[in-house]
UniProtKB/TrEMBL annotation:
<keyword id="KW-0326">Glycosidase</keyword>
<feature type="signal peptide">
    <location>
        <begin position="1"/>
        <end position="22"/>
    </location>
</feature>
<dbReference type="InterPro" id="IPR017853">
    <property type="entry name" value="GH"/>
</dbReference>
<dbReference type="GO" id="GO:0005990">
    <property type="term" value="P:lactose catabolic process"/>
</dbReference>
<feature type="domain" description="Glycosyl hydrolases family 2 sugar binding">
    <location>
        <begin position="56"/>
        <end position="194"/>
    </location>
</feature>
<dbReference type="Pfam" id="PF02837">
    <property type="entry name" value="Glyco_hydro_2_N"/>
</dbReference>
<dbReference type="GO" id="GO:0004565">
    <property type="term" value="F:beta-galactosidase activity"/>
</dbReference>
<dbReference type="Pfam" id="PF02836">
    <property type="entry name" value="Glyco_hydro_2_C"/>
</dbReference>
<comment type="similarity">
    <text>Belongs to the glycosyl hydrolase 2 family.</text>
</comment>
<dbReference type="InterPro" id="IPR008979">
    <property type="entry name" value="Galactose-bd-like_sf"/>
</dbReference>
<keyword id="KW-0732">Signal</keyword>
<keyword id="KW-0378">Hydrolase</keyword>
<dbReference type="GO" id="GO:0030246">
    <property type="term" value="F:carbohydrate binding"/>
</dbReference>
<dbReference type="InterPro" id="IPR006102">
    <property type="entry name" value="Ig-like_GH2"/>
</dbReference>
<feature type="domain" description="Glycoside hydrolase family 2 immunoglobulin-like beta-sandwich">
    <location>
        <begin position="204"/>
        <end position="295"/>
    </location>
</feature>
<dbReference type="InterPro" id="IPR013783">
    <property type="entry name" value="Ig-like_fold"/>
</dbReference>
<dbReference type="InterPro" id="IPR011013">
    <property type="entry name" value="Gal_mutarotase_sf_dom"/>
</dbReference>
Amino acid sequence: MFKIRIVLLALLCVTSVLMALAQTQKEIHYLSGTDNIHTVNWDFWVTGGRKAGKWDKIAVPSHWEQQGFGAYNYGRDYVTYGKNFVFHDEKGLYRHQFTVPKHWKGKKISLVFEGSMTDTEVKVNGQIAGDIHQGAFYRFKYDVTDKITFGKTNILEATVSKMSSDKSVNNAERLADYWILGGIYRPVYLEATPHEHISWTAIDAKADGTFRSNVHLEDLSKANDLLVEIKDLKGNVISTQKFPITSEDSVKLVEMKVEKPLLWTAETPNLYQVTYTLVNGKKKGYQYQDRFGFRTIEVRQGDGIYVNGVKVKMKGVNRHVWWPETGRSVNAQLDLNDVKLIKEMNMNAVRCSHYPPDRSFLAYCDSLGLYVLDELAGWQKAYSTVVGKKLVQEMVIRDANHPSIILWSNGNEGGHNKELVDEYKKYDLSARTVIHAHHRPGNAINGIDCNHYEDFYSTKKILEGPNIYMPTEFLHAQDDGGAAAGLADIWELHWNAKLGAGGFIWDFADEGIVRTDFNNVIDVNRVNAPDGILGPHREKEGSFYAIREIYAPVHITMKKLPADFNGTIPVENRFHFTDLKACRFEGKLVTYQQPYADESGMDSVLNLKVNSPVVAPTQQGALQLNLPVDWKQYDALLLTATDPQGAEIYTWTWRVRSNQALTAEILPLKSFTDVEAKEDSVNYILKANGITAFVSKKTGLLVDLANDYSMKLAFNNGPVLIDGQSELKSTKRWREGKNEVVEFMFDGNLSFIRWTMRPDGWLKLDYAYNMKKAVPYAGVSFNFPENYIIGAKWLGNGPYRIWKNRLQGATLNTWEKMYNDGKAGIGQWTFPEFKGYFSDVSWVQFNTVQGKFLVATDQDDLFLRLFEFYGISGPKGYPQLPTGDISFLDAIPPIGTKLALGINGNAAVNGPAGESNQMNKNVNRTLYFYFGTPKGEKENTQFVMPKINVLTD
């Protein structure tokens, strides 16, 4: 009995504490679910499209299209019919019953919508809650204190119109280049506070420790002091002060000082917490908390953007709020993952295009460190001043205290109402600079030019001044184009230019929607929405890793180890605030698996000690590796850099041993026979060790293959020179030691083709050519049916394909992939793609339905092309491919972008890396072929998928 009394007493104590907190803090009661995973069913009726005209249930929050209601619309649907087109607007009628906690009696009760698309009329118990809210991306609330009943069921009704009755809202939000969805897509909740309370605050916390805050007060009657306490995130109070207040005060400006605060930057996201308490004598009343960071943002016109007195350059990306199954209705975990992915690319900034995001995304930008451009909607047309003023107020009041937000963006590409510029500082005590994200020259504002999709050469011109240049969109990433292609050239311009402030790539992820009306296929509206560096479910495309290398703040430009390499690696520190001594470095010497090993990847690894060098931000220095005496016996050197938070920055790889040394190990075989050579009326026939090759007398091309141990191989019709003209002038065959040789001499671009059959069955191919002009690609091709391929394993750079102007992000390893038909942005997000261009290949083993065959080279810098693919879709795939199915190349093409260049665009405008290949000297190339698994070698009968990201993740 005594124990029961103790338990009851403890419960009473806990209850009293909770009741006391309820009296002094805001309480929230969700009427909907909290996110797209945790939803609550409401009653629903839609006026048009699927399930129209009858009551049903709908999950809230959500878009009604994703719940099987209404019809799908892409923004441009509304403008393709001309000025006289009238869109039949879908309306959704929501109804929900709820009760209110009894202890809320006597409090102020607000009804809050975090986001609803778009015009929203709300009733509580049959009474209009307030004005119809217009604007899809903003939090709005109603005081419903006098409309709530206690002890009874309350009824909430909301009528949501997909299109607005205000033309300017439709122009700003709905007639846009993205999916237009409907519904209450963010949470809905009740909020209870004492009538005497703090409604919101605006903070300005500077790098010198100055803390200022506008505290907005409501219905003061008892409180006579405002207690302000600043704490670190461990709860330690570092500054506290009381400020007198009176019932006349609606806003109280408080000013305090913190000595030597830890500063907030994207590299050092140090945060603090401030607690505001209304005090009456010794009695504490209502409390309000905020999280913030000490930092000073300056736009120094004619110079740059400064954070805490240091000029920063934006390595940024545009981001839509998006998930394929649920559209713009997301959750905190998705927001967290996106912030992590952006930082994994070594980016430091994000533009919230083209509307403010969920609050959780901004909170993660605060805590993990990203510079944020928070944007008012206005895709290419602006809100009216009347509507725009309300929405600026809603956006800034909600978001102003996030230290990650460094600039406000007042609309996109012409969607700028200049009458709204002065509205931001009414609610933002720190008076952040307002920019216009535009696509027309001459629209700079506040000293910053954000012009979109300028190329390398126009960027050079703009960077001459007079304005800071920070393109809020550049390098459009439709499909596999843009994004990292040309990025290295343009980034160097910004990094080295006084007025270069970096920029924001378009964009983060493909905006593909799961179509509930078409068997749940993912629809990107063809070429309109597959603009991401990642797929819709955040599948990593090749540009992801290329950006990661280009933007790595540990900047290493050494591409090959010099002949006299002694372990010294030149390095530039491209952090803004972090010395490289705070980073960790790890070296490895590795030996790679050979073609007939059971697995791919590394065979042996030796770890190397690397001391972190002292290199100040933006300065240059060197890393020193302690190399063992036998280091040249290994195949490659790896270097991994890790940032102060423990995240990998990048892993670089360099060859130690040459291809000549590598092929010397794989070419000698344990079995051999005499080489047979004969000819008929059309072919030379060479045979050794069970392998027979047929070479055409008229062309010098391989036309057929036979293998005593398997089916015939369909690898043929090569080497075809992929460009130029040639004419056969002579042919001869001879015996060279134990080998048989046939040689074909040509006039024209092709000089010769020479085939040599060895006793072990290796077929050696030597050829030479000279294009004598600028070409997109250069080399030779063979034919092989794509549908016969099972997979491939190769030693070279991978696992992602590359372009001439996007060589970064691929690392040296033994890679192995099963065949796939992945196409970036085209509905098949299987990465890394099997097909494409691959660089620095030593050997490649093809696994086919007809058996395996191996191709190797003892020379450097061989590119491999695999089958039919393209980078950008349009009237035709772009860029054009070489002839044939499998190519061995000495030059590959660059890729352009969708917007700046047109679908058949000239990639050269995005920098030197995008220029054509100047092939003005003779090229001599040797390839070795083995058409089967050699007898006496270990037969690898099972295809093993590797851990393909061992070096890049």
